[in-house]
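re: ur question from earlier - yeah i can do the single chain one, its not a big deal. heres the input i used so u can compare w yours
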Amino acid sequence: MCLHAYPLRCGYYLCLNKNIQLKQISNYLFVYGTLLDKQNEFGAYLNANCSFYADGKFKGRLYDIGEYPGAVVDSGGLNYVSGKIFLVNNTAEVLKLLDDYEGFGPKQQQPNLFVRELLNIKTEKTPVICWTYLYNLPIDGLRLIGSGKYVP
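and the output i got, formated as tokens:
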């Protein structure tokens, strides 16, 4: 058992002991914004390197940030953020490229525009643990997308 564990929103723990090598935690990605647009260069890349798995949603709020939406988790709220779950073919490679696109990582402007976290995504059948990009900047003054669905 790891004594340096960090709780994840999905209910699992991530071991922070650098001497323990971790395997990829999830090969699923939940997408709710511009990556759903196949005309978007990165949306096209996603579709070429992933396969659709299921529609999904999580308890949260979706905001209009201008050219794209941003989602935040709100476990106790009434709203859901809706999107699609993809099974990623080469997870490490795909996430590295998408991290850059989403402004996530140590080489990106700090604080990061988005953070990538594991969330339990509800589907019609069973929840799926997915990587999800969550908005990481203040939401004051942003317009809430009440439907929880992004329309490009």
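The chain is about 15% helix and 40% strand. not sure if urs matches, ping me
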